[in-house]
């Protein structure tokens, strides 16, 4: 189907390289401006305040096993795109991709009979990815992988069916070298601080080991209580029990439950956390009265709370999380509007986060009102809101972030952290919220190797947008450079301040 | 009101011509890239898989009657724009446009007293269009008409009140020549295959005549059952009766109704159809149980199904259509979110499709879930979704098409098939879905003469977008050219494969 | 936090100036085209048909008091942005901004204990604004203030903490001069006509004084009845009483209420009004029967109408307003989708319009249907719709305005009247509605001094968009110039025609 591809110049005869002006505007004058701005941010340290790298990776610092385990199997962007081509004529189907299992994703425990066993040959998995390289044209995966393969791993040729084995050997060779172990890459990427995501009942032992190794300020936990505040989940009760064990507090009562959450938040603060993180399908922050909340908690523990009641309790608990943030200073991150496990059958076969998470409409103006009315001007409160529904940018999020001192607008997230989408984000939000009501880029990734590629792309997008403002005489160059430094470095630091200083001595000592 | 217009250079003194670089980016370097890409697609055959040309036009191959009947009266884009200016001071009102009747649109049977009789003088209708030429500035109608008038009909001057009669004579002269008969234009446009839209009870006799003339593979039907699966329509029962007659199957029972639909789908397959087409105001694909469906059908036949029940039955039938597609291989096209006949009084006066169809919000993530969970990985199933609600591009449609192998994202449609809107489509969808999860351009037109103009404009828009990717070093030129050929030619062919091969011999023989 | 800012060139060592090509495209060829177009519109008179300047300002023509009272305290764009930075480290917090009170906004009557007293030192308020100058980067406030300060007030340096006092003295000096009194600026700005916004019970005495001074055609009222048709408001009854007094008609009955509204509309017509203006959180125009409406009115007067009933009555009254517009020829402006006083506590402390107004989703297709079906083709009816929800542009508003002769699409409004947003407006609406179904720019401002800056920026945005059409060979230059003149001058005049001529002698004489 793609005769030209096989004959493509870059595949075969030229050296594969990263263009220094990639993702900058093509017009020469605009490009020169963008480069001038980018020169001031390209080498700034990375402040990565929202992500999903496993802290144990850095605590253990063991080498990455193989190219498939590093690049393909855990990256849902990659896996989704390849599976999306699995019934169409073309190289992906020809390479044998029928389901996520062919890319090494293992069936979940209890998967039904007939669920395909996961491919275990990393070379075969890698080959399938290479065969499907053309499917990623125009996507950020393409940009990130190109950056990582060329810049970090010095890969000599564009992935393709033909180059797959040679590339595999090249990468496997690199992974065996000490410079490619996690901490070495961390240093090489210039990461100043990296936030992980952790459950309230987690022991944070990897973070403790990191602290013992002097890395405590560099890798910090984030408090993510979703499963602990959603009684509609079947395993909510188990989570509440585990919370009690972790906190050493009886969580069979509503009061104990709140105390245990408060205690675990302080344990996270003590371990260096700067923020909490909240992702729910629907957003609502309406509080219940203490009596209503207690009654709902008791019903939920007894298994007799209906769906509407469970949703109201989750909304109430989001309000409580905001109240606790105003107390303990943890920044409250919120990102609603994702329908998890859209493909139920696949989720049951292969486990959660495989059944495709798909955005839905999100509403912020009414949903955040209770929290913003209560804490939006509180000097110790900060809410950072993310969306995958672009329609809220100019309509709701920029007006809110441009008004309430306690709110900032998070960076373009998930499906929106690519070149064109990042441009749309700035164009839709800056005119109402400015730059300083946004919180800087977050990579939100579990793909450790892509962190520097993602921050690089974001800095290029911001430099391009700022170059446009300068080129259109809407901003002077010195201001654009200052704003670029804000976006790349100062704002992520300032948006996620260390909460310790804001605690009273009594609280800090708890 | 528009003194400059009368004095405009192009009207009077210069030759009217099509610029070879129209709709390409103005920057010289970007334009050169776009031209290089466009050069590889401009002369590829047209694969027009979704449209509304009447098959009889090509079966009969009779000459087009006159310029008004060809260009004005049947083109609702044109008619709407002219009517929209009918109460404003200016050339349209001055030219005597008061309602659609002044543009030749006839009152419907049973139109109320006082409904204005349709203008019958084609020269007067054409004059009204020419007088209103400036109203189309910036619209795709302007681009298409310019292309058709200059490229196809060699019109020498820009339309205006002054040039109207000369242009009319010029066009009428051309229409009398054999090179301007439908089949000659079909060849000249380089159309490889053209899909029409047909009701399940249609005899497909025009297609049979085309097949007899050796044109069976070039003009193919599409199965459009909307009126047959919406019990809220007053004429639903009549349609179900007609379906029974066409299929030779008793449709007074739910089982017979399903069998008749299945049989007519196979008749369409035998006549060369590749797809079905479904347009409903609301999108829902939730199936009922067989018992519920049977009960709903019986109530609907008895006239006792309420609106909610009728909607649920339509949703169920969309699920059935998907199930039948997985069986017989017809691609399922779906395009919800249009409120038909918005202006009820005008619809009653002048007939359906006159009262203005206006978009409403459309939801896809939840609405398509039942069908995608059931058939989204089926090797014989393909769903192509269209929208006139751009907000669903990055939020819902690209994430869905970028995940499920059984789904592709249809081209920008209806109000969105213009230069800027087509750019927004690629910018909003490519980063998540790539190119190969889209299905290529569809012209969706009943204006036969505009088909080549529409595909030309779409190829220019895609070349411009791809040139941007190359100019920003996000894609290599060889890949961009390959992607352009995908979009212009390979993807529409591949997205609508012939279903015959997928049928079992037994089914194919039915 | 911002070391580079202090060292910025423009702050200290260079002259502050307005670039003649500001807000035009950076590409030299495109910029030349945009300039050619802008040259034809830049000096056209300003027709400002929708705004909130107080007519007394021009009737009294007293000098503006001081820079803070002129530029900061009454401008909610400015106040919001500064307050949004009040808990973040940086110059705004350092300058002492804690709440709106620190910017001179006074607590409302009956504000709770502890509400901070308003700052009364204009120099201190001005200093806070200057200290926060960098917060406005990329916003229209930045563009407007730059224009006003440099072009109108000849300010020599960029605002900053350091330059604050010198700038204050410079501005105060200018404000004492006769050339800076309101009428002198009105002439200098080239304003041909300026519409104010007025309540139905207003005496219009400032307009009468203007008329007596020969300014009656230059400053005209607009009829804004929101508070008089929303029974959900606590003060609705008081407004209905005041309406009765103003009209000299008993408004205790529904019939009298309608008659009084009709009479006041005619009084506005007599005073030169061209339009009504309607802003409601939700949009609905469904009429009630006369009996239902009468019953709802009586219940509302008795205080026994529930929320649903009150909303239905408001919808009914919007339909009545449309019916009256078809009678008396006042253009009906509508702009739904704003949740007023989002921050209830701040609204209670500091008064309405301080508690932040935040957009919500707006629906037009169904909501406007009753009015458009009834009056959309009426030769004497015009509806102009505005939105702060961009999603409605291509989906609902352009299709409606591109079909109904009685509807036009209003200019990008409020949060959307900035460079990038105005470009998005044209790109999203022109391809469906063209130019002549839009109504031209409205500044919608109470900041008198910014009027010329806002129209200037809008003309630059339109010139840039039109230059793109010319550069892409989608429009000829003569047409682009003609369209630019339409947008800048002809369309606002034509969209808001004087209704007097359309009244029958009997009506006009009432």
UniProtKB/TrEMBL annotation, chains A, B, C:
Biological process (GO), any one: D-galacturonate catabolic process
Key words, A-Z: Isomerase
Gene3D superfamilies reported in the protein's UniProt record: Metal-dependent hydrolases, uronate isomerase, domain 2, chain A
UniProt enzyme class: isomerase
Reactions this protein catalyses: D-glucuronate = D-fructuronate
UniProt KW Isomerase keyword: yes
Top-level taxon in the UniProt lineage: Bacteria
Signal peptide limits: none
E.C. number(s) listed in UniProt: 5.3.1.12
GO molecular function, one term: glucuronate isomerase activity
Sequence segments annotated as region (Disordered): 1-24
Family from the record: Belongs to the metallo-dependent hydrolases superfamily. Uronate isomerase family.
PANTHER family: URONATE ISOMERASE (PTHR30068)
NCBIfam families: PRK02925.1
Protein name: Uronate isomerase
Organism: Agromyces protaetiae
């Amino acid at each position: 189907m793609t005769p030209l591809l096989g004959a493509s110049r870059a595949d075969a005869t030229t050296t594969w390289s990263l263009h220094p002006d990639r993702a900058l505007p093509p017009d020469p004058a605009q490009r020169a401006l963008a480069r001038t701005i980018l020169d001031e941010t390209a080498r700034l340290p990375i402040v990565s305040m929202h992500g999903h790298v496993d802290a144990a990776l850095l605590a253990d610092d063991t080498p990455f096993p193989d190219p498939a385990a590093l690049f393909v199997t855990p990256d849902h962007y990659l896996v989704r795109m390849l599976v999306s081509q699995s019934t169409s004529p073309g190289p992906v189907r020809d390479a044998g991709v029928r389901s996520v299992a062919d890319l090494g994703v293992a069936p979940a425990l209890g998967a039904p009979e007939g669920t395909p066993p996961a491919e275990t040959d990393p070379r075969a998995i890698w080959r399938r990815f290479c065969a499907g390289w053309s499917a990623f044209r125009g996507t950020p995966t393409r940009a990130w992988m190109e950056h990582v393969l060329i810049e970090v791993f010095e890969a000599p040729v564009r992935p393709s069916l033909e180059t797959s084995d040679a590339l595999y050997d090249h990468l496997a060779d690199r992974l065996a070298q000490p410079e490619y172990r996690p901490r070495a890459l961390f240093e090489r990427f210039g990461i100043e601080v990296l936030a992980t995501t952790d459950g309230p009942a987690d022991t944070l032992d990897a973070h403790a080991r990191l602290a013992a190794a002097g890395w405590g300020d560099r890798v910090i936990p984030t408090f993510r209580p979703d499963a602990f505040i959603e009684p509609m989940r079947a395993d909510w009760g188990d989570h509440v029990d585990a919370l009690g064990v972790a906190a050493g507090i009886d969580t069979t009562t509503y009061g104990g439950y709140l105390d245990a959450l408060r205690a675990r938040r302080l344990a996270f603060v003590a371990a260096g956390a700067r923020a909490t993180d909240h992702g729910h399908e629907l957003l609502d922050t309406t509080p219940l009265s203490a009596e209503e909340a207690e009654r709902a908690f008791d019903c939920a523990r007894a298994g007799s709370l209906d769906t509407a009641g469970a949703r109201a309790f989750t909304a109430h608990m989001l309000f409580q999380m905001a109240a606790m943030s105003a107390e303990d200073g943890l920044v409250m991150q919120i990102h609603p509007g994702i329908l998890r496990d859209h493909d139920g059958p696949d989720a049951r076969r292969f486990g959660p986060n495989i059944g495709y998470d798909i955005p839905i409409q999100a509403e912020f103006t009414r949903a955040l009102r209770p929290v913003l009315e209560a804490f939006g001007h509180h000097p110790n409160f900060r809410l950072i809101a993310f969306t995958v529904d672009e329609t809220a940018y100019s309509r709701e999020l920029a007006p809110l972030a441009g008004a309430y001192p306690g709110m900032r607008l998070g960076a373009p997230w998930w499906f929106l952290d690519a070149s064109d989408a990042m441009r749309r984000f700035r164009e839709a939000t800056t005119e109402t919220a400015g730059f300083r009501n946004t919180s800087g880029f977050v990579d939100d990734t579990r793909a450790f190797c892509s962190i520097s590629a993602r921050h690089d792309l974001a800095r290029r997008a911001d430099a391009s947008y700022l170059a446009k403002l300068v080129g259109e005489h809407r901003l002077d160059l010195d201001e654009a450079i200052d704003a670029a430094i804000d976006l790349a470095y100062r704002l992520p630091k300032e948006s996620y301040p260390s909460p310790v200083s804001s605690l009273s001595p009594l609280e800090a000592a708890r």
